[in-house]
């Protein structure tokens, strides 16, 4: 059975309300495919029965299961490579000079999924910061399932084969049965927490580097603007923001300027720009 227009509308409104993700018409097949395992897990005969029961008797836990299922969690180690090369070649050398008094770097992996990006950042800092320096990396995601996976820090052979060099697998992982687990030495510098980037964020210490990659593409312009404003509040004045290759702040939030960073580009808060200043097109 396929989703009815009413069922698709229910799911799209739920996802829009809870995660600000826009599900346009034409995504019915995707929604149904993602929800089939959820329906089975709760004992429903099919997705239609699952949604019908949920509409009759709202259940926050099952609504959360829908959010988790429909949140895109595509990720890999050192994804797209260029941003990580920019860190080693451009960003870290500059920050090492600027943070000489504190000798500490804080990084935010804002849409960390199952943790590969956050741990890739940890490996990068571990290998490129001078002796005596420390770092903290915070990973956030809207999916409870992904946060639990990231905290567990265990990955299958297929997952570690996606972009992870063999030398770093040997150095930063240990066997855990049929899986690989991040070593405690690396894990101690990385933490994870559940967070919705589109709502007011909790008070946190500012970050030197923010990776907000491949998440804005799922939002409308107003929501993108909100997320970028939230990020600006947590980015140090001389900090660096990295977006996905298909994403930009241009025409959305003029509080930022795009700058070259090696063979890619990053974004920085404009000097003298008032906090929260945006261009509203």
Structural notes for this entry:
This protein is α/β, with parallel strands linked by helices. The protein folds into two domains: 5-70, Chemotaxis Receptor Methyltransferase Cher, domain 1 (Orthogonal Bundle), CATH 1.10.155.10; 82-269, Rossmann fold, CATH 3.40.50. It contains eleven helices and ten strands. Helix 2 (28-41) crosses helix 3 (47-56), helix 2 packs across helix 4 and helix 5 (82-98) packs across helix 6. The longest helix is centred in the N-terminal third of the chain and has 17 residues, at 82-98. The chain is globular. It starts with a helix and ends in a 12-residue tail after the last strand. 38% of the residues are buried. Mean pLDDT is 89; it is low at 275-281. Keywords: Methyltransferase, S-adenosyl-L-methionine, Transferase. GO terms for molecular function: protein-glutamate O-methyltransferase activity. Its EC number is 2.1.1.80. It catalyses: L-glutamyl-[protein] + S-adenosyl-L-methionine = [protein]-L-glutamate 5-O-methyl ester + S-adenosyl-L-homocysteine.
Tags for this entry?
281 residues; alpha/beta; Chemotaxis Receptor Methyltransferase Cher, domain 1; Rossmann fold; 5-stranded parallel sheet; 3-stranded antiparallel sheet; globular; disordered C terminus
